[in-house]
Amino acid sequence: MDKPSRRNAGTPLRTEWFESIRINTPASERRAASLPARRSLKKEWQAAWLLNAVRCIDLTTLSGDDTADRVARLCAKARQPIEADLLEAMGIDRLTTGAVCVYPTMVSAAKRVLEGSGVPVASVATGFPAGLMPLDLRLAEIRYALDQGADEIDIVISRALVLQANWSALYDELCAMREACGPALMKSILATGELKTLENVAKASHVAMQAGSDFIKTSTGKEPVNATLPVSLTMLRTIRDYRDHTGFDVGFKPAGGLRTAKDALNWQVLMLEELGRDWLRPDLFRIGASSLLGDIERQISHHVTGRYAASHRLAAG
Amino acid sequence: MPSVGEIMESMEYGPATEDPSAVRDWLTARGSFGHFIAGRFTKPVETFVTSDPSTGQPLAQISQGTARDVAKAVRAARRAARGWGAMAGHDRARFLYAIARTIQKRERFLSVLETLDNGKPIRESRDIDIPLVVRHFYHHAGWAEIAATEFPGHTPLGVVGQIIPWNFPLLMLAWKVAPALAAGNTVVLKPAEYTSLTALAFAEICAHVGLPAGVLNIVTGDGATGAALVEAPIHKIAFTGSTEVGREIARNLAGSGKKLTLELGGKSPFVVMADADLDAAVEGVVDSIWFNQGQVCCAGSRILVAEAISERFETLLRRRMQKLRLGSPLDKSTDIGAIVDPVQKTRITGILDRATAAGAELIGGQAQQGCFIAPGYLRNIAPANPAMREEIFGPIATLSTFRTVDEAVDLANNTAYGLAASVWSESATVATDLASRIKAGVVWVNCANIFDASAPFGGVRDSGYGREGGREGMLDYLSAPTLTGVKDPQPAAISAVPDGLTKDPDGIDRTVKLYIGGAQKRPDGGASYLAQDELIPIGSRKDIRNAVEAAQGAVGKWQGLGGHGRAQVLYFLAENLALRRSEFAGFASSDEVEAAIRRCFFYAGFADKYDGATVSAKPGHLTHVQPEAHGVMGIIAPNGSPLAGLLSLVLPAIAMGNTVVTIPSQDRPMAALTLAQVLACSDVPGGVVNLVTGPRDPLGEALASHDGVNAIWHAGQGEGLTVAERAAASTLIPVWTPPACEWTAPEAQGRSFLRAASRTKTIWLPYGALPAGTGGSAY
């Protein structure tokens, strides 16, 4: 696949691209289950792939008890996600996470800490996580987050419109959000755990991309089931199909289901096998996670030192 | 070695080699392997080398089994047979359980050994072969435990000779050994000469768990060793391998009375309908022909795609193919490993050369340095292209298109084989229709190459006969309860020139004819012989041909009636037989007539009750095992029991939905020819029962030589049976010899007849509207 560097401009609503889509769930699950067993990463390769995952992490805190200080601590970790001596041992001089991801009211705190680091700040918006707010308030929230300095906006879609197959309404809402985002990247959270079927996930993915999303994202982290490999597989295949139709590359962000270093490897294998090398860069791949980084850092520490580190020996996020 | 920073740019996988040192240590310690006979390894005498096909490096020396070695192993198995067969099921179950557990505990060792010896990727031996081996022994430990109550009156066959191929060495061993031992047989097994090592490691495991000496014997060697095993005094041969060798074995066993099951080649269709999940189907191809280097007898090697979506499907297929990694089998990131031997590589490239010379276009599929061939497929390929008809047994599929469902079925069935099929459609209506219309022993709906010990596996047509796995598989290693033996009398010699006149000169002459396609037909040869004071038509090869054609023409409608519809016909037949009792006077005893009437009722009653089963194979899969009629059956009826004998065979056959060509009693054909009139007035559709009188043995041979016949029942003994079995070895028609019994006896009926009148088709249908969210371990 050649890489056009254009931002996804979206298309008019083209329901014929997805209305007859058929997805066999057991087959998707078989593929998702066999894929991690088909590829193995050892030693330097494992370390490199784990560091690559770190580059792609949207280090996230989205809790009701978030405070400016808590966010500052997270941002410090985003600037230096892996201890410097570990990086040095591997000959890597600089590494940050892909972004931090916070609530709109935490954006300014994050921006302060991250100034000069090059780490973008992503803000959730549009009534995260449920999205059940009037559209004008949801759009206003986007504008507020941008005002606070957010570089990227993670919006949530109206699940009801998917369950009702009201594609034109969904498309219109998303177009309005995209317009509100302006130059900021828009990541559309589908909340796949609430869409339930893979066909719903695929259709929602198509509408989100047609409305100009820069990324499609699985979950808020608040649904009962968050990112899974079968759901991710489904979304990646729609990204491929959308690219075949339009030539636009859309990014992918699994969120809420990745906790271990092994998860990080599995998802990267999925990206490489289903889409290709370009989707292992932070401009097209992000991982929404909070605890994942700790496990990766422990694995990296083991790779460098040959010992497993207790978590208290590594800097908290 | 690249630095971490460099890898972060390239994002390559890097090497991930499974550590083979434990296996190498074992090989070094053993050095040279003898046979495993009577619980001990023999001293190696004449040996040959077995190599790692991915490197060509020798792994070990293996013994070339001689006829004497085989004889010794068979003697050991015979000595052990009585004790093992008489052992309580629970005790046999304990051994099978111990074997299962031990294999499980040594799964890594066995996976690595299999990969080294065979060349298959470690992922496959680790995640597929060995887990299925373990599952097979667990499952059959269960059968050993419950066999006495589940198969009442059944007894072990005795000593079983088993010959297995090189594509799934330990798995094929498990498929053969586990049911044989569970049923109480003892075994002499010959592994393939390319891949004997896991069988020898298995022998060590058997010794380790204390399996009684002689219960399992392994004799290694090439085809000559296998041939010696076929000749040896054993009770059954179970063979998995090429169709060519299968035919030879069947020929050698003709007339021997030894049982035979054959699991042979295939050229299985892979049908993608327009409403399929195309990504799922593409992944199905990966699991079919790009699995185990395409060295899979049931691989969906003929991809048939609906024209409406063929372009998109091919685009996706080609992209997916480019992602497959060819390389060292021990590397955990390898998808395609080594072909088992340079001989096979040459064979594959030879077929590809002929295919492209005949006009096909090869995408991918290039031969590589060493014993490797890249995955590929042939497009623009005509049905007559050799690669469309022959089993390539390499990682190369064929890709062609169809327009409509009926064309898909026609193309799917346009093959000599009938092992498996894979069909892809999101419509349950369409998928199940395809599953029922494609001629194969296994059909995977929206999946491919899924196996389980409880799901019978085996083929039809040139793919062989017999089933492995589940209840059906167990029955192939057991003898049904025996009936009181009554030998069928040999027919008298036939003269086409009858001498003397025995007719009553005052009556009107009676003309009896052949009964073909529901009509009375004069024999093609225009000759008659004298029997029961009547001139009986002498049927010939041409009359058999006409009768088979009539029977083929009647199959669809007869099966379409369903069990209930056929039952009504059989009840009506009973009614008319009862009304016409007197017409049989002089041709059949009244006992025979009464038995015939009861048989009609019995099989009418059973016509809608010989059911399949849904087996507990894997969670999330509806796995349906259904008995299906063979199609056209040839029945060589007993000579000694002209009416009850004939109907005891014809009725179960037609009750199951077969149509039959029957050769009635040669000496006493008048009952059958009278029956023809009753059939005609009993709503039995024309062509369902065809009667061809004449010399039994040549007619039996003609039936067994006709490719359009799908099964033979032969009630005779001696040379006639041998001749028919020899002919059926070429056509690969299964021959069943019904128990020689008193045909008027009430026990000359039952499930064993219905089972022989059908073969099972296993249909796999994975279900699930919503993802479980866990990924699971479906594959």
UniProtKB/TrEMBL annotation, chain A:
<dbReference type="Pfam" id="PF01791">
    <property type="entry name" value="DeoC"/>
</dbReference>
<dbReference type="GO" id="GO:0004139">
    <property type="term" value="F:deoxyribose-phosphate aldolase activity"/>
</dbReference>
<protein>
    <recommendedName>
        <fullName>Deoxyribose-phosphate aldolase</fullName>
        <ecNumber>4.1.2.4</ecNumber>
    </recommendedName>
</protein>
<comment type="pathway">
    <text>Carbohydrate degradation; 2-deoxy-D-ribose 1-phosphate degradation; D-glyceraldehyde 3-phosphate and acetaldehyde from 2-deoxy-alpha-D-ribose 1-phosphate: step 2/2.</text>
</comment>
<keyword id="KW-0704">Schiff base</keyword>
<dbReference type="GO" id="GO:0016052">
    <property type="term" value="P:carbohydrate catabolic process"/>
</dbReference>
<comment type="similarity">
    <text>Belongs to the DeoC/FbaB aldolase family. DeoC type 2 subfamily.</text>
</comment>
<dbReference type="InterPro" id="IPR002915">
    <property type="entry name" value="DeoC/FbaB/LacD_aldolase"/>
</dbReference>
<dbReference type="GO" id="GO:0009264">
    <property type="term" value="P:deoxyribonucleotide catabolic process"/>
</dbReference>
<dbReference type="InterPro" id="IPR011343">
    <property type="entry name" value="DeoC"/>
</dbReference>
<keyword id="KW-0456">Lyase</keyword>
<dbReference type="InterPro" id="IPR013785">
    <property type="entry name" value="Aldolase_TIM"/>
</dbReference>
<dbReference type="GO" id="GO:0005737">
    <property type="term" value="C:cytoplasm"/>
</dbReference>
TrEMBL record, chain B:
<dbReference type="InterPro" id="IPR016163">
    <property type="entry name" value="Ald_DH_C"/>
</dbReference>
<dbReference type="GO" id="GO:0016620">
    <property type="term" value="F:oxidoreductase activity, acting on the aldehyde or oxo group of donors, NAD or NADP as acceptor"/>
</dbReference>
<feature type="domain" description="Aldehyde dehydrogenase">
    <location>
        <begin position="537"/>
        <end position="732"/>
    </location>
</feature>
<dbReference type="InterPro" id="IPR016161">
    <property type="entry name" value="Ald_DH/histidinol_DH"/>
</dbReference>
<feature type="active site">
    <location>
        <position position="263"/>
    </location>
</feature>
<dbReference type="Pfam" id="PF00171">
    <property type="entry name" value="Aldedh"/>
</dbReference>
<dbReference type="InterPro" id="IPR015590">
    <property type="entry name" value="Aldehyde_DH_dom"/>
</dbReference>
<keyword id="KW-0560">Oxidoreductase</keyword>
<comment type="similarity">
    <text>Belongs to the aldehyde dehydrogenase family.</text>
</comment>
<feature type="domain" description="Aldehyde dehydrogenase">
    <location>
        <begin position="46"/>
        <end position="479"/>
    </location>
</feature>
<dbReference type="InterPro" id="IPR016162">
    <property type="entry name" value="Ald_DH_N"/>
</dbReference>
<dbReference type="InterPro" id="IPR029510">
    <property type="entry name" value="Ald_DH_CS_GLU"/>
</dbReference>
<protein>
    <submittedName>
        <fullName>Aldehyde dehydrogenase family protein</fullName>
    </submittedName>
</protein>
